[in-house]
Amino acid sequence: MKAYVLKQYGAPDDALELREIEKPIPKDDQVLIRVRAAGLNAADWHLMRGDPYLVRLMLGVRKPKAGIVLGGALSGVVEAAGKTVTLFRKGDEVFAENDVSLLGAFGEYVCVPEKLLCTKPSNMTFEQAAAVPVSAPTALQGIRDTAKVLPGQKVLINGASGGVGTAAVQIAKAMGAEVTAVCSTKNLELVQSLGADHAIDYTVEDFTKSDKKYDVVMDIVTTHPIAACCQVLTPKGIYVGAGGLGRGVWIGKTWDHLMAKLNPFNRRRIAIIINLASSKYLNDLKDLIEAEKFVSPIEKSYTFDQVPAALKYLEEGHVRGKVVVTI
């Protein structure tokens, strides 16, 4: 099978090499998937770059471990199932967020634990389904599980036009919130089409200097100090940080989040989201998708031989919605 192997940390053309490798064999609790599409996420280029250094603890400190194939979000067709697998069989159409120790979506075949697998939504293509894992579960965990958004609450999403942001807008709206989306001029129409009640153009207005108050601020791009974001919260409001990696030599934005959380002068709640892979979140999202309350806005679709180009575009940081690769 063909796969993009991470041979070193760095830019896509230097770090990735398309190779012929052995097709993986599923363990008893795993399913072998013929990958049909891969969804790209910020974590992919962070792992590829080894930036911040914190991510190298997972893949290798000085250089990547041998044989690593990146890509955590995928959709495809079940090729084979392990002995203890009961929910899936050959021919099933599925989507998944793979464990960081396995990854593998940038290859023709990948093994995924049964507990991370979900049946593909009936009203989505493989490309659309591959765009859901990682980003949408992050938004779901932030909006529903951490902020516990209630109908009528005011939710502001900073960085509303990217993968996590577009998902957060739709999830908050589905939960009955009044949603304010912060993005650039060219993306105002996109976020409004996804359900945002209000859209703020950050090139014109700084939301942290407004008199408006919000019950939830979900911050994906961390373009403002956390203290400034907390100033626009109601007394019982909560700041949810979902952009913890960021750029930074050692641990990215994680230190900023921790210091803000420990600041004794801060009177607002602060929570940091670390996405947890689970079929539970994908099943919940599948329900929203099939109820036509959630879509995957895909800006660009690349072919398998264009994986480096797709990652290069993603890394530029101005993606509208999602980028996917057809395998």
Automatic annotation (TrEMBL):
Enoyl reductase (ER) domain boundaries: 11-325
User: What are this entry's molecular-function GO terms?
Assistant: oxidoreductase activity; zinc ion binding
Gene3D superfamilies linked to this entry: Medium-chain alcohol dehydrogenases, catalytic domain (3.90.180.10), NAD(P)-binding Rossmann-like Domain (3.40.50.720)
Question: Which CDD domains does this entry report, sorted A to Z?
Answer: MDR1 (cd08267)
Q: What's a Pfam family this protein contains? A: ADH_zinc_N_2
PANTHER family recorded: ALCOHOL DEHYDROGENASE RELATED, ZINC-BINDING OXIDOREDUCTASE
Q: What is this protein called?
A: Zinc-binding oxidoreductase
* Organism, as annotated: Klebsormidium nitens (Green alga)
Taxonomy, top ranks, is: Eukaryota, Viridiplantae, Streptophyta, Klebsormidiophyceae, Klebsormidiales
